[in-house]
Amino acid sequence: MTAKGQEESHIEESRLLKAIEMIEQETVNKTLTLGELVTLLGEMGHGILILLLCLFFLQPIPLPGISTPIGMIIIISSTLQFLNQKPWIPRRFRSREIPQKALHKAAGIARKIWSRLEKYLHPRLLFLTRARVFRFVNLLLLIVSAFLLALPLPIPFTNTVPAIVILSIVFAQLEDDGFLILFSYFASFAMVLFFYSLGAGVWSFAQRPWASPF
């Protein structure tokens, strides 16, 4: 098989692209609920759901009212995925409709990201996405990132930085790309430094005499 043929084969087999097409087809004439979306995606539900939810945070303005429930859903979905369980959504969120325009926009963004990454994403270093010990490490990073995403902080980039880590891991898992997992490890380290610096700055400000009410 030629290099071009291999590339075409990879594109056809892409779970992400398949999911995007399913979403676009199903939402042409109707609005989906969160529960229907998860059912539609089947075994891909965990990763695609997390991916779509995180796309809204790829901008510097934080969304405190939205980030907390989404962070909770990501933690639940990531844990169920690690345990090889079917996607599950809390009853209170299951019947919530996803605005058709918003879902189409998210699918379009995902397709645009895929079009830029398709030349670079392909199965490699599979032990980083399939070995149980690394799957557990990836789960921990997803949980920590989702927790930080869920914090209602009105500070620019406090949603964006964790979202980048989460998206890196999810893209890597969907496409079995261990190299992207390595990138997510470096991104996780940068995320920890970012929040540590943020916390240290707030603590330093609070300790100044003129900032204290006493």
Topology:
Elements: H1 3-13, H2 15-26, H3 34-41, H4 45-55, H5 64-82, H6 91-94, H7 100-117, H8 127-130, H9 132-150, H10 160-175, H11 178-207
Helix pairs in contact: 2-7, 3-4, 4-5, 4-7, 4-10, 5-9, 9-10, 10-11
Would you mind describing this structure in some detail?
This protein is an all-alpha fold and 214 residues long. The protein has one domain. The chain is 71% helix and 0% strand. It contains eleven helices and no strands. The chain has helices at 3-13, 15-26, 34-41, 45-55, 64-82, 91-94, 100-117, 127-130, 132-150, 160-175, 178-207. Mean pLDDT is 83; it is low at 1-12.
Strand count, sense and closure of the main sheet?
none
Mean pLDDT across all amino acids: 83
Strand content: under 5%
Helix/strand-derived class? mainly alpha
Sketch the topology as an H/E string, one letter per element.
HHHHHHHHHHH
Number of strands: 0
Q: Which geometry do the CA atoms define?
A: globular
Radius of gyration: 19 Å
Helix content: over 70%
Number of helices: 11
Low-confidence stretches: 1-12
The count of domains is 1
Distance between the termini: 75 Å
What is this entry, summarized?
By secondary structure, the protein is mainly alpha-helical. The chain has 11 helices and no strands.
